[in-house]
Design brief:
Number of domains: 1
Largest sheet: 10 strands, mixed
Distance between the termini: 34 Å
Structural class: alpha+beta
Shape: globular
Number of strands: 10
Domain START: 18-166
InterPro entries: START-like_dom_sf, START_lipid-bd_dom, START_lipid_transfer
Strand content: 35-45%
GO molecular function: lipid binding
Organism: Struthio camelus australis
Helix content: 10-25%
Pfam family, one: START
Length: 197
């Protein structure tokens, strides 16, 4: 378990530090970058938020509040609270036309910074839990790596970077969004800012 959570944080940190991000969209408070490697698509969304970093950290690391701003989350429940900083969640997302709704079992690990220059981190990845086998109602999907890095800009503002790494087959709507338009991602990011502030 310790290895899994360490791995979770390390994978996100590694993804964030990768060179080769291409900026695809810039709004006032939201910037979107993407990176493609083979059939893996990585997304980075940077948001400027007018609340302290520690508050953003506590709001974003509670995934049960996610459906308040992210329409891709239909339900979210805690399956297992491993400790204060690690929880396993069961998430369902609404069905796309002609597809079964998806479900996910993810481990979410959070870390506070050791030094002021370091970000708060909330990292999530899919795990297998014998108590939650795939069901016929849902299409069990996998999140390779997703999460947030939150940098403090001042006592009342922070920069929130959201990352998501998916295989192109997993999220057809995300791939379509990125090639067609990034409006839906921007919309979700703006909802996230609104929720935080």
């Amino acid at each position: 378990q310790a290895y899994l959570s360490y791995n979770n944080i390390a994978t996100l940190t590694h993804l964030a530090a990768k060179p080769g991000w291409e900026i695809t969209s810039t709004l006032d408070d939201v910037k979107i970058w993407t990176q493609e490697e083979g059939d893996v698509l990585s997304l980075k969304v940077e948001m400027q938020v007018k609340i302290p970093a520690d508050l953003a950290f506590s709001l974003l690391s509670d995934f049960t509040r996610r459906q308040q701003w992210d329409k891709h989350y239909l339900t979210c429940e805690v399956l297992q609270a491993v400790n204060d900083d690690e929880k396993i969640y069961y998430i369902t997302s609404p069905s796309m036309t002609g597809h079964k709704p998806k479900d996910f079992v993810i481990l979410v690990s959070r870390r506070q910074p050791c030094k002021p220059s370091e970000p708060y981190i909330v990292a999530g990845k899919s795990v297998t839990l014998t108590s939650m086998p795939p069901s016929s109602e849902y299409c069990r999907s996998e999140i390779l790596c997703a999460g947030f890095q939150i940098y403090s800009d001042s006592s009342s503002s922070c920069t929130v970077c959201y990352f998501n790494q998916v295989t192109s087959g997993v999220l057809p709507h995300l791939a379509a969004d990125l090639t067609g338009s990034s409006k839906s991602i921007e919309g979700t990011a703006l909802e996230c800012i609104k929720f935080l502030e």
